[in-house]
Amino acid sequence: MKKLALVILAGISFATANAQFQFGAKGGFNFSTLGGSDIDDAKTLVNFNVGVFARLPLMDRLSLQPELVYSVQGAKFDNPDESHHVNYLNIPILLRYSVGSGFGIYTGPQIGFLLSAHNKFDGNSINEKDFFNSADFAWAVGLSYRIPATRLGIDARYNIGIANIEDRSNSNQTGSVRNDVFQLGVTYVLFSTGRK
Description:
The protein is mostly beta strands and 196 residues long. The protein has a single domain (2-193), classed as Porin (Beta Barrel). The chain is 10% helix and 64% strand. It has helices at residues 2-17, 168-171; strands spanning 21-35, 45-59, 62-76, 82-100, 103-121, 124-127, 135-146, 152-161, 178-193. An 8-stranded antiparallel beta barrel has the order 1-2-3-4-5-7-8-9. β7 and β8 (152-161) form a beta hairpin. Mean pLDDT is 89; it is low at 7-17.
């Protein structure tokens, strides 16, 4: 049993040593909305996200991809001048599998820390932070593509809101509100180590 454990550990160490650790920056567009029983007629709000990522090799084709992302989310409503902006510092922890030809697929949990929340209506902005919980939880699924012979990549993902973000103690509501966000953007590898 001890020999088997040593063989497995040696195999993982060899794969990690010959794999590529990467660190990079990312940014793109958010197409976000708010769902749940306390939300009616929410429309898509277009905004942005920006952050950094790392890819930590686990074994051949499989890597762990933690990220730190500033994300402007929320929704528009029927009144064309009204929108809710709910801004987070998101930390997704993704398991990424390289399928070859530059493509990768990934999935994993994400925790978001609320930074600010505003209701914008007829040119006015009202602070709504007290009506939202300080943390959000989501599940991310996505697809990435590394452009051959470059450090650039294209990334598309959907963050499925799985937590109620509404603070019921302040909102006097009994239902739920959740974030749903589709993201489309680019990645750029700032540096990498190991096998090219």
